[in-house]
Design brief:
Layout lengths: L3 H6 L8 H7 L7 E13 L6 H9 L8 E14 L5 E10 L3 E11 L4 E6 L5 E9 L5 E5 L3 E2 L2 E2 L7 E9 L4 E10 L3 E16 L15
Antiparallel strand pairs: 1-2, 1-12, 2-3, 3-4, 4-5, 5-6, 6-7, 6-8, 7-10, 8-9, 10-11, 11-12
């Protein structure tokens, strides 16, 4: 079985670094979870006018208001099949400030558009379309469309678009991650960059914390 990312990238998928091919190649047949642990060197961004939205977003595991340096970080990726038989790939990110904060999502393959749909947060009612690009260093670039609430595009004043770059450094034996979410008017809503290592663990069933409170639609 091909992963949702290999379906979109096609032959380009083979240009990814083997470490990224292994991670992004997880499928529901893999019966594995990728557990990444590391440190965000810095977490930045957030205009003062965006603070109330960031606090509200924290409740839904969409955003968070805290900022800082050297923040411990975990990322758990697991692929599973939902109740409608769709292949899903979960991203459970936790930033360990004094109070842990999550930024979670579940991605699925959109056959009609040959791209990926990203369902954000606990309830998966915030949605964006994802485009993929393989970088010259064997890394991957993920770019999102403006966010929709269900099927309605959010106003520019509270919308955001994400750019993600992830690559593997053989000299360090670690993954590098750079993420920045920007708003049309207020600039960077939040961004983070750092490094992490991955361990793959066998699973017999999908952990409950991975499953959304509302299935992707």
């Amino acid at each position: 079985m091909k992963s949702i990312y290999e379906k979109v990238l096609g032959e380009e998928y083979n240009k990814l670094h083997p470490a990224l091919q292994k991670k992004f190649g997880l499928t529901s047949d893999s019966k594995k979870i990728a557990v990444g642990t590391g440190t965000m060197n810095r977490i930045w961004g957030g205009n003062l006018l965006m603070k109330p939205i960031l606090r509200l977003g924290a409740i839904k595991h969409l955003t968070f208001p805290e900022r800082g340096d050297s923040i411990p970080f975990t990322l758990e990726n697991v692929a599973y099949e939902n109740e409608r038989g769709e292949e899903c790939f979960a991203w459970i990110r936790q930033f360990n400030f004094n109070k842990p904060r999550n930024f979670d999502a579940t991605m699925t393959y959109n056959m009609n558009k040959n791209n990926i749909t990203d369902y954000l947060g606990l309830h998966q009612d915030f949605i964006s379309d994802i485009s993929l690009q393989v970088l010259d260093n064997g890394g991957i670039k993920i770019t999102s469309s403006p966010i929709r609430y269900k099927q309605v595009t959010l106003p520019k004043a509270i919308n955001g678009q994400a750019e993600v770059m992830e690559w593997y450094d053989e000299s360090m034996g670690k993954f590098h991650i750079f993420v920045e979410v920007k708003n049309h008017y207020f600039g960077t809503i939040f961004g983070y960059e750092g490094t992490f290592s991955i361990q793959y663990k066998a699973i017999n069933e999908i952990p409950k914390f991975v499953m959304p409170r509302r299935n992707a639609r």
